[in-house]
Amino acid sequence: MTAQAVLTALLLPPLLLVLLGMAGAGFASRGVRGGLALALVAGGAQFLFATPFVAGTLLASLDPAPAAPPAGAPGAIVVLGGDAARSGAGGDVGPLTLERLRAGAALQRRTGLPLLVTGGPNSPGLEPLAHSMARSLRDDFGIRTRWMEPAAGDTRDNAVLSAALLRPEGIGTVFLVTHGWHMGRAVAAFRRAGLATIPAPVRLDRAPDGRPSDWVPRPDHLAESWFAMREWAGRLVYALRD
């Protein structure tokens, strides 16, 4: 696990809230004033982040980037890697990446454009995600990958290294496939890398309206809240760095 991944885990819920809750419980057991309140606040926040209402509101706040008028006809489809899964062969695409591949495959069938997949190893011992993505496109969707970019460690790398592959081919405009909550940061990175980008977002979920089921917590919604908060943190880092 990289230092960036460790820092992300420590500074974002749910781990941050678990640590705060444990600290609050420890303080309360020693009679420290405010310890119980800290533990209750951390537990309540954990509950709320696991609800569809909070998770959906956070995801809805990450609107995809608007499509700018393309500089020319798109010449390729770029699919960004997301998560990976361990398997007997050493690595495979995770569910988020598989959703992106499915959308990329459907777009490729509609347009006939060649595909580029981008993503480096997600953790030590795993093959580059781009290799797993190309294998999944071949075996699961019957589609050949034209370009593989196996070194990117983050979204900015995805953009810069993809542009380096496509520019020698005379391609300056692409369809970009990633999740809607990630699209804003991804489009900005690709445009900075010199590629005119047409967003092709995956799974744009409804904004919650406060119906009773929106307040029933589930672990998958806690994960969605984590993705949304990590994305906001990434946007902040990119804004400061660039």
Coarse structural class: alpha/beta
Uncertain runs: none
**Strand line-up of the largest beta sheet:** 5-4-1-6-7
Q: Count of helical segments?
A: 9
Percentage of β-strand residues: 5-15%
How many strands in all?
A: 7
The CATH class of the largest domain turns out to be: Alpha Beta
Radius of gyration: 20 Å
Mind summarizing the main beta sheet?
A: 5 strands, parallel
Query: What level of helicity do the residues show?
Result: 40-55%
Shape: elongated
Give the end-to-end Cα distance, rounded to a whole number of Å. Answer: 25 Å
CATH architecture of the largest domain: 3-Layer(aba) Sandwich
Oligomer: single chain
CATH superfamily of the largest domain: HUPs
What number is the mean pLDDT?
89
How many separate structural domains?
2
What do these coordinates show?
There is one protein chain. This protein has helices spanning 3-11, 15-29, 35-49, 52-60, 95-111, 129-141, 155-166, 180-192, 219-241; strands at 76-80, 84-85, 92-93, 115-118, 147-149, 173-179, 196-202. The chain is 52% helix and 12% strand. Helix 4 (52-60) packs parallel to helix 9 (219-241), helix 5 crosses helix 6 (129-141) and helix 7 packs across helix 8 (180-192). Strands 5-4-1-6-7 form a 5-stranded parallel sheet, with helices on both faces. A two-stranded antiparallel ribbon has the order 2-3. Helix 6 links the parallel strand 4 and strand 5 (147-149). It is built from 9 helices and 7 strands, in the order H-H-H-H-E-E-E-H-E-H-E-H-E-H-E-H. The protein is an alpha/beta fold and 242 residues long. It has 2 domains: 3-62 and 215-241, no CATH class; 76-202, Rossmann fold, CATH 3.40.50.620.
